[in-house]
Design a protein that fits this description.
globular, 20% strand, 6 helices, N-terminal domain of MutM-like DNA repair proteins, 2 domains, single chain, 4-stranded antiparallel β-sheet
Length: 271
């Protein structure tokens, strides 16, 4: 958390306020993130205009003429844009002063996020180089999904969360997509048919699009770039609902551990 819908929601909120703006000043209050913030970032960015704001998996890409700022929100990171910035709060690591007068702040209490610079094409960066297709792009299709997983013996949910198979599908939305597709998270990939891959593909796209439209899921303290909470958590069918009745059939939702992560499913609706 944040997962792909939350990152995409952040991108959509920020893009109109960032693209075309020049970075007048960069202040690094605390560069201790998952990887240290580059010490020369102010010199690299000041006076440069943001050309575009894109997303790759769960990474935000602020593109400049001279390179790309790669931002990952980790588990608790947020990017907020202020017309009138409040006093600096705890855990705010960076501030970007824009030519519009707005201020963009990066906050990350647990410091698992990242703010990195590359002057090379971002797709060549080690963090992005091995990412699989985007789940919402035409590059992600049922044929490709089947080819990527049918020879594997791992549980289906673990494959779905493998960024080399498809990029950016995290625990929340993998759980919800598997429920919608009627597939149990523990099913071995080798036992997933082409037809089941097609159902899962459709479910992943539906769930992600619905979550983006709802502003993502706010489970703890996630807010978008304007401070708005998401509300897709109200639509969750299995995630976080262990022991509660399935909203489809009434069977008690079960919980297990897969790859060190909690995984919830309905034993009646998912086979």
């Amino acid at each position: 958390m944040p997962e792909l819908p939350e990152v995409e929601t952040t991108r959509r909120a920020l893009a109109p306020r960032l693209v075309g703006q020049t970075i007048l000043a960069v202040t690094v209050y605390d560069g201790r993130l998952r990887w240290p913030v580059p010490g020369d970032l102010p010199q690299v960015l000041e006076g440069r205009a943001v050309r575009s704001l894109d997303r790759r998996a769960r990474y935000l890409l602020l593109r400049f003429d001279t390179g790309t700022l790669i931002v990952h929100l980790g588990m608790t990171g947020t990017l907020r844009c202020y017309s009138s910035a409040p006093p600096l709060a705890r855990h705010e690591h960076l501030e970007f002063r824009l030519s519009s007068g707005d201020r963009l702040r990066y906050r990350d209490p647990r410091r698992f996020g990242a703010v990195l610079w590359t002057s090379d094409p971002p797709e060549c960066h080690p963090l992005l180089a091995e990412l699989g297709p985007e789940p919402l792009s035409p590059d992600f299709d049922a044929k490709g999904l089947y080819a990527a997983i049918h020879h594997r013996r791992v549980a289906l949910k673990l494959a779905l969360m493998d960024n080399r198979v498809v990029s950016g599908v995290g625990n929340i939305y993998a759980s919800e997509a598997l429920f919608r597709a009627g597939l149990r998270p523990t099913r071995p990939c080798a036992r997933v048919s082409r037809a089941a891959c097609a159902r899962l593909l459709a479910a992943v796209r539906e769930i992600l699009n619905e979550a983006i439209a709802a502003g993502g899921s706010t489970l703890r303290d996630y807010v978008d770039a304007q401070g708005n909470r998401g509300y897709f958590q109200l639509e969750h069918r299995v995630y976080g609902r262990a022991g509660l009745p399935c909203r489809n059939c009434g069977t008690s939702v079960r919980e297990l551990r897969l790859g060190g992560r909690s995984s919830c499913y309905c034993p009646h609706c998912q086979k």
